Amino acid sequence: MMKDNDTLLKQFMDANRQEMADNGFSRRVMHRLPCRHNRAAQILNALCAVVSVFLFVTFDGIQAIIEVMRNVLVYTIQHVGTLHIDIKTMVVLFCLVFFFTVRLAWQHVDD
Amino acid sequence: MGQINDISLIAQVVAFGNKRAFDKLVCKYQSPLRRFFLNLTCGDTALSDDLAQETFIKAYTSLSSFKNLSGFSTWLFRIGYNQFYDYLRSQKETSDLEAAEVDGEYKVEQVSLSSKMDVYCALKTLKEAERMCITLFYMEDMSIDKIADVTGYPMGTVKSHLSRGREKMTTYLKNNGYDERQ
Questions:
Q1: What does the pLDDT look like over B9-54, one tens digit per residue?
Q2: Mind listing the pLDDT tens digit for each residue in A17-32?
Q3: Do B17 and A111 touch (CB under 8 A)?
Q4: Residue of B12, B20, B25, B26 best to disrupt the A interface, most CBs of A under 10 A
Q5: Buried b (16+ CB within 10 A) or exposed e, B46-81
Q6: Are A34 and B173 in contact (CB < 8 Å)?
């Protein structure tokens, strides 16, 4: 008796099981999704930014940057004649930069 | 394989905030989840879509707490189950008289509709817990232990809800000539 009922109900439910067409449902869900912000990560970022600015100011960061740039410039001018630029390395470097830029842009469009 | 794919999509959402991966999960589970709500609400399409939408949003915001103890679909249905009971609780303020009036109108309307609607009329004869268990067992092909995971009922309770629901539904179907139609 119980088996009969089970079979009857199974047949009935199978006959009435319907696949729901999406009809824009998932698009509506995706539009309503909130931004995922990790509060701990945000606090850590802010903290690191504050510490970085503090250290930069304390150790006279601007002066250090100017000095490094001047040294690089002087070095480049002095050695410009003896520099060997490897084309292969430059192509690989360019490809990598291009890839990461596109990926970043794509992620930005996605969000 | 499907479960591994789900976990990989969840990892992408949690680690990289990849919304496209979550979109894939929504597309995959929208049909069973909406059908589940449609059966629980006895055919109220707008309400079931609203509940399904809220369920997906809740799943998205708490995805990092997913532990994969019983699979993504069970976890999602568990959220859906809570969502449905939250909705029922919020509707508790409506007076019984009003509900009876609405039920009366609803029943008359449903009886006059085609046999496709029989399933909602039949489900309407069940209590909420019975309807929940019957829907998950027969419509979504869930095992008894998975239903226990979703609803939080002990397995024995799930079995007795199933047994009572099965009896009520088959009585309704036989009384309405479904048995003879086969």
A1: 998 888 877 888 999 999 999 999 999 999 999 889 999 999 999 9
A2: 888 899 899 999 999 9
A3: yes
A4: B26
A5: ebbbebbbbbbbbbbeebeebeeeebbbbbbbbbbb
A6: no
CATH code, residues B94-182? 1.10.10.10
Domain range list for chain B? 1-93, 94-182
CATH number of B1-93: 1.10.1740.10
Q: Which residues of A2-31 are buried (b: 16+ CB within 10 A; e: fewer)?
A: eeebbebbeebbeebeeebeeeebbeebbe
Interface test with B, best of A2, A25, A104, A109 (most B CBs within 10 A): A25
CB B111 within 8 A of CB B94: no
Contacts of A18 in chain B (CB under 8 A): 35
The structure's pTM equals 0.68
